[in-house]
Amino acid sequence: MKKIIPFVSDCDEELISLWLYYLQNQMSEYEIVLFKNLSESQILSADVAIVANPKPSQISQMKNLKWVQSLWAGVEKLLQDIPDASFKIVRMVDPTLADTMAQSVLAWTLYLHKNMPLYKLQQNHKIWKQHIEVLPEEKNIAVLGLGNLGLSSVLKLKENGFNVSGWGRSKKEIQGVTTYHGDAGLVQILKGADIVICLLPLTPETNNLLDKQKLDLLAPDTALINFARAKIINYKYLLEKIENSELSHAVLDVFESEPLENNSALWDDPNITILPHISAPTNMKSASKIALKHISEYYQKDIKPTFVDKDKGY
Ligand code: NAP
């Protein structure tokens, strides 16, 4: 009999069916079973599960869980929903996801660098006006977060000629990239930036990291891209600064409540580009392969995957 791996998810049915298809396709030696189809004894005996927005009430019934494989890179919701979980969490670290994010970072950096929002506005008013374009090496791009997604993005920007700097918690060396860390480093990197790109995890430390004081460090022609989590940046103050021409533009992919409410003022500002959380969707095929690798290494070779550091929150 095949070993059962529970899949615990509160996503919509269509998404769940797709995930079951991809997971089962990769994991023919295991049987992937949706939580609602598990028997009482299967719920109680499961030691590993795959999760994607799991219902806390379901996951808490799995008393023998040792660890869960999240299909998402960000695990702040899981940590927040099940704060006293006895099981460990493995987040999705996928080179394919990092490539996708790096491509999005490059695309939206070029969108800002090439003045696309401005030319679109001009077209709306039939204005024929050329603007001076500086070279990529004259543009200072500051990437906040140098993890799986941040590092690939930094390298992609560098490859495309931009002057890139990066900021993380620990000191890092990346060839051709000026790196910063710590509070003083954040002040330095923000002060010199033309475009700030946020790729940090949401943790108690990064919550409201870009508050009024930090946003005030940015020069008025600075633009901001947030592909991480909304709560890292004070959006209310960001909007105020954009309305007052104290910041040039923001590309926002993530919001406190998604979909973004119809009545949000963020929709209406021409200097804010709203994206529906699409900068780096998890690739079902590559993510399923990674989940399989972790699960089979665990059962067949007793190799534990890398767990999230719950104290750090990522
Ligand atoms: P990661 O590999 O864990 O990297 C996190 C980076 O942030 C690391 O460089 C870490 O520094 C730095 N960091 C964490 N806390 C910090 C702090 N307090 N001060 C300074 N630096 C700090 O994460 P990832 O895989 O790159 O993912 C980042 C986030 O992207 C996820 O958490 C998720 O929220 C978001 N995401 C968004 C999408 C989307 O479609 N919009 C898709 C996937 C992921 P150290 O290197 O020193 O530890």
List the helices and strands and how they pair.
Blueprint: E1 3-9, H1 13-26, E2 30-34, H2 40-45, E3 48-52, H3 56-59, E4 67-70, H4 76-81, E5 88-90, H5 95-113, H6 116-124, E6 140-144, H7 148-159, E7 163-168, E8 178-181, H8 182-191, E9 195-198, H9 212-215, E10 223-226, H10 235-243, E11 249-252, E12 272-274, H11 284-301
Helix pairs in contact: 1-11, 5-7
The protein binds NADP nicotinamide-adenine-dinucleotide phosphate.
| Uncertain stretches of 5 or more adjacent residues | none
Shape: elongated
Distance from first to last alpha carbon: 36 Å
What bound compounds does this protein have?
NADP nicotinamide-adenine-dinucleotide phosphate
Mean pLDDT: 97
Would you count the extended β strands for me?
Answer: 12
How many DSSP H or I helices?
Answer: 11
Radius of gyration: 21 Å
Structural class: alpha/beta
> What does the main sheet amount to?
7 strands, parallel
Binned strand content: 15-25%
Helix content: 25-40%
H/E element sequence: EHEHEHEHEHHEHEEHEHEHEEH
**Adjacency order of strands in the biggest sheet:** 8-7-6-9-10-11-12
